[in-house]
Amino acid sequence: MKSTDRILSAYLGIVPRTPEAAVLRLLVELGVECMGADEGSLLVLDRKKKQLVFAMTVGSAASERTLVGQGVPLGAGLTGLAAATREVQIGAPTFKDIKQRQRAKAPGGHPAAVLAAPLLIRDEVVGVITAASFDPHKRFSAAGASLYAKIASVAAVVVDQQQRLRAVEGLRRGRARLKAISDEERLRREIVDRVGDLTRRRPDRLPDIRLLLKTVGSLCDR
Questions:
Q1: All structural domains of the chain
Q2: Is the pLDDT of residue 154 over 90?
Q3: 142-178: buried (b, 16+ CB within 10 Å) or exposed (e) per residue?
């Protein structure tokens, strides 16, 4: 399994080569195109390590091979800040600990401008999508940030629906895998059901039913 597929499956429950995985990539591609950016990425939240992990990058296959699997601490740089504040962040990058692919026109390989929007499911952050430009003159606008927030919202809906479906499927499989009950357990349930049915059908005989059960109990204790 490729790194991208493994990360999407582990953190978001997105199964590889499914429409949901394709839609997420399409949304990142759409964001890059709308922003006039060079690249865009989807990062997912690793709650245990308190960091965002690169899950996919569009715009450059070489960048995707380099970035996928790397982590950005929560609160670090614009991407980490977007997750920590639950708000879209735009500006020049401040976190330079990410290894980038070699670029002839970008000193150090780092982007000149970054836009980062959080993916929120019921106010809980599950990831961040970014757009990055290596043009030193490029700047993302407030209008672009607003549009990117909407794209991130759609991506969050895709993730939420897939996680709900996965939970339902898990419950269904769990029920299917329940072991057959023993003969003793089956008899116990049958007795309980019969007593319950009797009390519902003859509520006027509840005192007699109670007395009968006490008598049976006394006999069993001997």
A1: 3-173 (3.30.450.40), 183-221 (no CATH)
A2: yes
A3: eebbebbbebbeebbebbbebeeeeeeeeeeeeeeee
How large a percentage of the chain has pLDDT more than 70? 76
If residue 125 lies in a helix (H) or strand (E), which one and from where to where? strand 124-133
Residue 61 · residue 39 · CB < 8 Å: no
**What angle separates helix 142-176 from helix 19-35, to the nearest 10 degrees?**
170
**Residue whose structure tokens are 């952050």:** 125
Give the largest CA-CA distance in the chain: 93
From CA 94, how far away is CA 86, in angstroms rounded?
18
Range with the lowest mean pLDDT among 21-25, 134-138, 147-151, 162-166?
A: 162-166
In the structure encoding, which two tokens stand for residue 16, read together? Answer: 């590889």
Asked if residue 11 lies in contact with residue 59, where contact means CB atoms within 8 angstroms, the answer is no
| Angle made by CA atoms 202, 204, 210, in degrees to the nearest 5 | 80
Whether pTM > 0.90 for this model: the answer is no
